[in-house]
Amino acid sequence: MAQIIDGRAMARALSAETTARVEALRTRTGHAPALAVVLVGGDPASEVYVRRKIAECCKAGILSVEHRLPADTAQATLLDLIERLNLDGDIDGILIQLPLPEQIDAALVLDRIDPAKDVDGFHPVNVGRLSTGTGGLVPCTPLGVMKLLDSVVDDYRGLDVVVIGKSNIVGKPVAMLLLEREATVTVTHIETRGLPDVARKADIIVAAAGVPHLVRGYWVKPGAIVIDVGITRIMQEDGSTRLVGDCAMEELAHARAVTPVPGGVGPMTIACLLSNTVTAAERARHE
Ligand code: NAD
Description:
about 290 residues, Rossmann fold
């Protein structure tokens, strides 16, 4: 049977480390790290994510400051808020929950966040730093993927990795992080030809397409490691819903290790958000 990489346990361990860093920072500087969480509109999924992020911040001793704006908020109003948060010395991290309502240009909004407070790692400065391997804040999900992989991989040099999905928030940054470790990375997407054959050559597959059960058993070579980033809520016959990943897990017994959905990448994403917030707070105090 494939080893199940326990994302919940790893997230707990990372959050415990983060809590200790919060305590240490507070002792040294008297400052508790603070995250501003901005939610525009009442998208139900966003509400759930924001509530979870705030609860986890609270557990780790990170102050979270919520800004809830109505769905018809003008772009200028949101930009003003970001400017105030950028200038507020008590705020270390700024998180704008996506998606934003359609009257707001999300790329413009993300560009306005001070890169030093961009705990999601989406600002072009942080994207550039990631692609040049020069520090910066790393997006939370890709950072979580690397930590999960690090628990089963010692040396990435020369390993063949296939990343499925080329989004700015998952696929591309994951590919950059793996390139930094000297893996040979193939980034694939919806237009990739012969994807099962491409995937079958991989030592590591990172699936981030958002297509339930896309990755079948015959796509995965024996002994490969599979990280399932996908999360899709599907309706079951009895009307209830459940979360499923991009991989047909029941067909992956021949893999070396796999991450479950739920309980794999998801918990690590939130734990990495907390860790990034503390990193931003430490750097702001030149630590
Ligand atoms: P996206 O829609 O921005 O990008 C999806 C990518 O997958 C695209 O590059 C597309 O070309 C590719 N793709 C789509 N269908 C494909 C197919 N049939 N074959 C090959 N490639 C295909 O999505 P995203 O924001 O990168 O998210 C991807 C998935 O990861 C979603 O399920 C999302 O919910 C999940 N996600 C999870 C976390 C987490 O914390 N676990 C975080 C972010 C995203």
